[in-house]
Amino acid sequence: MGRPPRIDLEDYWYHVIARGNERQRIFKCPADYEYYLKLLDDRLYASRGNLGAYCLMPNHIHILIRRGSDMLSSVIHNVHSKYSHDFNRIYGRDGHLFQGRYKSFIVLDDSYLESLIFYIHENPRRAGLETKEQRYLWSSEKYYMGKKCLWKSFVKVPGYEGKAGINNYKDLLKSRLEKVTPNYKTFIGTMQESIKINKRRKDRQSIQSFDRRERETIENIANRYSANFKITIKEMRGLSRDRNISRIRKDAIKEMLNCGYGPSEIGRYFNRTSGYVNLIRINYE
Fold it and tell me: In which region does residue 263 sit, left (phi positive, over 0), alpha (psi from -120 to 50) or beta (all else)?
């Protein structure tokens, strides 16, 4: 039986976990930690993604990522391939550094972000690698406590920005014993939202088998909206953020989705990513 496809949507937060092969160390010195973070930061920044929290343990990692324009799988694959290649070269080893494919969990409810950043930052304390006198160095918790972060892609999750956010995080630490780590398999979010995604998976086959000869083309749908609302096709397919044009464009995309067209082909027509179309579909459903 094949592995289930990943849920990969632009502008959503993901909790990513990766472990060393056979539980071996993936970081052996401070330079290794720094190099991994630099690779990740550069890759996220280039794709307009964000790093919201991280904890690099000696033999595994926890990172909270907001996906940008590039697929999450592409970002992680690029970073891990480059890091593994250089790690093996430096330490004279062969073979896989990471154990299997990474795990990723989409966050569908922002209220879970608070539990996640606590869970990620709590790892060194649970492993006995941090004391009150000595903070763990390879965690983003210091940035939530007020230290300036130099990573270009780093942003604090909503509710923890600015000076007020520092106090909020300190309050979170004081009450951490009351916090419960979310229980999840492939997602973190409300049951209603998870049902939407599972429904789209089940409907994919029937959508793909839709008889193309009986439906209106993407071009004709766009032309009809253009004529009805007195805007040009160039405006609809352009990058204008005018609210009226954006609303008309989204309405046209919803109709195209109802006709069975996929996010990729709709995205190509409007010069946008499939993730952009997927977000419209989620809000629509």
Answer: alpha
User: CA–CA separation, 126 vs 166, rounded Å?
Assistant: 22
Contact call for residues 226 and 245 (beta carbons, < 8 A): no
Q: pLDDT by residue for the chain (285 residues), tens digit each?
A: 456 667 788 888 999 999 999 889 999 999 999 999 999 999 999 999 999 999 999 999 999 999 999 999 999 999 999 999 999 999 999 999 999 889 999 887 777 888 899 999 999 988 888 877 788 999 999 999 999 999 999 999 988 988 899 999 998 888 765 544 555 555 565 545 555 555 555 554 444 444 444 678 999 999 999 998 999 999 988 877 788 898 899 899 988 888 888 887 898 898 887 777 877 876 655
Distance CA 281, CA 116 (A): 26
Phi, psi of 103 (to 5 degrees): -100, 140
State the burial class of residue 11 (Cβ atoms within 10 Å of its Cβ: 0-12, 13-18, 19+): middle
Backbone angles phi, psi at 65, to 5 degrees: -125, 135
SS3 state at 213? helix
Residue 85 and residue 20 in contact, taking contact as beta carbons nearer than 8 Å: no
The two beta strands, 60-66 and 187-188, are unpaired
Architecture of domain 13-188: 2-Layer Sandwich (3.30)
Return the structure tokens found at 264.
Answer: 């990729």
**Cα–Cα distance between 156 and 172 in angstroms, integer?**
14
Q: Is 156 left (phi over 0), alpha (psi -120 to 50) or beta?
A: beta
Domain ranges within the chain, ordered by starting residue: 13-188, 210-284
Fold of the 210-284 domain: Chromosomal Replication Initiator Protein Dnaa; Chain: A; (1.10.1750)
